[in-house]
């Protein structure tokens, strides 16, 4: 999966004059206090394991002195582990100009909800107590470094935040091994079933997870993907497209082609077809199409710009 939102486009909102002034004042105050005490500010830990209880001190307060890169992760997902290793390696090369705060998504659901995490791994930045998304999903190290370079530049230019030099040879803490929870085991079983093509088993497994944790974003995404793949399994694409072309008012035919388009990577075509079908229908038919469109949004991810555009188009049709 390609990383989404890998940009600093949201940083304009963080550059409000008041926020920048407060951040600079706090940074200058910390440096002045350290100077009065006869030394430099204490070197930060490059990587910190953050919980809901320590978030204020380890992320919000620290973000007035150094950009904090927040990684929502789990040590039960290979993509999360690999990204964490990359972030830790990069944290060492930035030598105190950034720090990494890793947050276990299963143990800190309140933070997951507050940040609006849609899937893992997900990476945010916090500057002067304000958060912005950086990217979601796996990414090459050079692309991550480019984003971090922009983050460091914005922190210094707009907030006067330059970080604190790390001590020579500062060590990065290693995550403690812990046994998987029952929910993690169930989610892993669902992923395995999906990878092995057991779509029925995957669907049931994801539903089991959601029955205990209805807000689990990873299970929602997995379920939406498995159900989509099951719907198109064995479908005759040519026959489906002909049926849809011959009967534009046939809701089932239009939905079937939208599913095929999405699986084939034609996301805008799938969304556009269903929005047009909503426009042409009423009553139960309209609601059926609308609900399928919302399901397809789940597959792509709510932060994808194509979903944002389609949501706006749907709203215009409905209201």
From TrEMBL:
A GO CC term assigned to this protein in UniProt = cytoplasm
Which Pfam families does the entry mention? Thioredoxin, TPR_19, TPR_20
Gene3D superfamilies from the xrefs?
Answer: Glutaredoxin, Tetratricopeptide repeat domain
Q: Which UniProt keywords apply?
A: Redox-active center
Q: Which domain of life is it from?
A: Bacteria
An example of a GO molecular function for this protein is: protein-disulfide reductase activity
Which PROSITE patterns would you find in this protein's record? THIOREDOXIN_2 (PS51352)
The keyword Hydrolase is assigned to this record = no
Signal peptide as annotated in the record: none
Pinpoint the Thioredoxin domain residues: 21-153
By sequence similarity, the record places it as follows:
Belongs to the thioredoxin family.
Quote the protein name from its UniProt record. Answer: Putative thioredoxin
Q: Which species is the source of this protein?
A: Actinacidiphila glaucinigra
């Amino acid at each position: 999966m390609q990383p989404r939102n890998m940009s600093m486009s949201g940083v304009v909102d963080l550059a409000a004059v008041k926020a920048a002034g407060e951040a600079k004042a706090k940074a200058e105050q910390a440096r002045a206090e350290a100077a009065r005490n006869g030394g430099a500010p204490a070197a930060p830990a490059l990587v910190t394991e953050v919980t809901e209880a320590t978030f204020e001190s380890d992320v919000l307060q620290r973000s007035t002195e150094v950009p904090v890169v927040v990684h929502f992760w789990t040590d039960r997902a290979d993509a999360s582990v690999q990204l964490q290793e990359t972030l830790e390696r990069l944290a060492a090369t930035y030598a105190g100009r950034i720090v990494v705060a890793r947050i276990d998504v299963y143990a800190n659901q309140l933070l997951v909800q507050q940040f609006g995490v849609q899937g893992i791994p997900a990476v945010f930045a916090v500057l002067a107590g304000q958060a912005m998304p950086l990217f979601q999903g796996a990414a090459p190290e050079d692309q991550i470094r480019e984003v971090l370079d922009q983050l460091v530049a914005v922190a210094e230019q707009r907030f006067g935040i330059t970080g604190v030099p790390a001590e020579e040879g500062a060590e990065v803490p290693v995550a403690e091994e812990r046994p998987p929870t029952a929910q993690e085991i169930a989610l892993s079983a669902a992923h395995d079933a999906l990878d092995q093509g057991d779509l029925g088993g995957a669907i049931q497994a994801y539903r089991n997870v959601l029955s205990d944790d209805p807000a689990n974003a990873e299970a929602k995404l997995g379920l939406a993907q498995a159900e989509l793949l099951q719907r198109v399994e064995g479908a005759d694409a040519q026959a489906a497209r002909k049926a849809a072309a011959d009967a534009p008012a046939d809701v089932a035919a239009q939905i079937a082609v939208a599913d095929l388009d999405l699986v084939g990577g034609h996301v805008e075509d799938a969304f556009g077809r269903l929005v047009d079908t909503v426009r042409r229908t009423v009553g139960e038919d309209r609601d059926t199409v609308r609900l399928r469109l919302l399901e397809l949004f789940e597959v792509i991810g709510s932060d994808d710009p194509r979903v944002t555009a389609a949501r706006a188009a749907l709203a215009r049709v409905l209201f």
